[in-house]
Every structure is written in structure tokens, then in C-alpha cells.
Write the C-alpha cells for this entry.
Amino acid sequence: MNKEELKGQFVAQFGQEPQTFYFAPGRINLIGEHTDYNGGHVFPCAITLGTYGAVAKRSDDKICCYSMNRPEEKIICGRIGELKHAAENGWADYPFGVVSVLEKAGYHLPHGFNLAIWGDLPNGAGLSSSASLEVLTAFACRDIFNWDISLIEIAKLCQKAENEFVGMNCGIMDQFAVALGKKDQAMFLDCGNLQCRYLPIALKDCSIVIANTNCEHKLVGSEYNLRRAQCEQALADLKAAGVKIEALGDLSEEEFLAWQEAIKAPLCRQRAHHAVFENQRTIKAVTALERGDLEGFGALMRQSHESLRDDYEVTGKYLDALASLAWEQSGTIGSRMTGGGFGGCTVSIVKDEHLKDFQAAVGAGYKAMTGLEASFYVASVSEGVHKL
Ligand code: GLA
């Protein structure tokens, strides 16, 4: 997609020229899954697949949205001050949610705008297509209305829109990575205090391969919120037993093992086990990478997937098939699911000389195991949201 095509579509739909263009990336997470809302660490990076947007001001108070990916949904409009979460908003629930939360946070929209988007992120694939759309909307508002708002604040308010407007109790990782990503850098983010350290992601003779199960993660809303509630219950039980922590991410493995009996429900204990060990694994993985120990990093990626499969139970047969096939390939350094789970994508670190064989073997094995075709993308690490 180039600006000219987006501009042509914008003019065809809205009968006016767009004034500004933006890009918001998607993200992959290399390790640290379901740790963000537990005050733990994550290690994502923004990718060059993402959402392109063209915007022009309107003279009335409407927000009108058009997606080139969903032309059948036509133009979807809502009025500032009256935006409500609704099924008939379709994909525009995300921009509407962001505008609604921004307004409530005191950011004034003197008038509405038209927004046309096009994206090359597969939807519902765990690569943060929703966060990409949210951050794009907030960033465009900041630009056209000249608001003084930091990217961190944008990330927080977009998370709030997803939690309170859309109803998905996600953590901060996706919005943070989309807003504050840097080209060729991974982000070691402590979600407890939002301290972020950038690390160059130069993998010598290796690439990061995204493999899409092409099975939409449909359960993600309800099951995701359930996992989060189970972790909150575990934390409440630990606090009630006198453990002085603010989040599960505050615990070392040893502390967790010493205190775990305080968590009453076995299932909540199991979920918390993942949250605590995954957080520690993420810290170890980043240390390994900094030492140049890519093999060590890869081994931790595999352990992460196994924990998400056995303790957190968010992988499912499609992601398990892709990960286990990847582990068998000679050029694979590491492989795991990325994002919320229940379908979506895996990320694998693969030696460049084996890239073709990897895709052929994993693709064929996946087809034989599931009947589905997987799609593969070699990831390039992008900067966060920006103007084009
Ligand atoms: C989704 C959420 C994130 C994070 C991941 C799991 O992508 O949006 O906040 O919790 O799942 O790590």
C-alpha cells in the first residue's frame, strides 16, 4: 500500500482529500507471555506489518471510519460525546473506544474527522491488530488537534479503551510496543513500573519467522479475561496469607514455591505458577541474549511455550502443532506462541541458511496434522507509530 492508493480510496469514499497519513505497527513478543497484567516483564518488538491511516478533519462532530480491508462494512460513523460499545460498530469499535476514552480523560475534540485505514496485519492473529488501530487513532488525534500527550500516556489510554470500551482486559504490552517501538530494537519492559530498556535485535545469521496458524483466536476475549481473573485470585490469596507483594511479578520462583499452598484453588495456583516462572524466564532470556547466548534464549522460548501449554492452557492444538514442528527442525534456535494464544501465531528464531527448509517442512507437517495451511512471514523490526 502506498500513500497514493490510500489517498485515492479516501477521496472515493469521503469526497475530500486526506490531510495527514500515519503508520502504526503490529508487534511480536519474543518472550514474556501473560506477564504484563501480572506486573512482570515482556520482551516484544514492533514489526513492519501494521495499519496505515489517512485522516481529514470534518466540520461536524462525527467520527467516520472506512477500512479498505472491510469495504463491505462501508463507512461507519459515530458522534463525539455519544460513542458507545456496540456490535454494529464492527471494527470501528476500536477508534470509537479510543476517542471516547480520550474525551473522558479531558482531551478536547473541537470537531470530528474522517479516517480511512488499510492494514497488512492478519486480523485476530495475535499480532496486535487492535492495539495498532487504537494507537493509530490516538496518535492521529494528537497530531490533528495539537494535543500535548506523551506516547506512554497514549499507550495507557488505548489500553483503557480496550479494557473499558471494548471489554477485553488486556495488559499494557501491545499498546506500549506499538506506540514506543524502535527500529531494530526489542523492548525489555517491566510492566510493573513501565521502565523500558531497548536492546538491539541483531541475530547474526538468524531471522525471526512468524508462522500464522490461520485459525482465529476466537476464545481470546472470554478465556483471556478468565486467566486474568484467576491470577488476581491467586494474588488475593497470597496477600491474605500475609505475603507482601503488589503483583505476582514481584515473586521469585523460590518465594512462589514456598508460598504456593496459600493459593486455594489448584487451577489458580497453576496459572500463578506460569506467571511467576514466565516472568523470571523473561529476565533470564534477556540476560542470555545480552551475553550472546542465542541458544540459551531459544531454549527458554521453548520452555515458555510449554508453560503456556501445560500451566496456562492457552496454546491449543494449532499452536502446539506449529511449535512442536519448529522444534524438530535443525535450523531452529527457538520457537513459541506469541500474543494472547488460542490460535494466532508462533515466533521462531531460525538460521538463515535453513529458512526455506523450515517453511517447507513446518508448512507440510502442519497441513498433515491439522488440514490447514500456515502462512509465514520473516519479521522486520519497525519503529513505533509515526507520521508518513
Ligand atoms: C494479549 C494482550 C497483552 C498480553 C498478551 C499475552 O496480546 O493484549 O496485554 O497480555 O495477550 O502476553
Q: What stands out?
A: The pocket of alpha-D-galactopyranose is lined by residues 33-34, 36-37, 170-171, 173-174, 339-340 (CB under 6 Å). Residues 266-290 form the longest helix (25 residues).
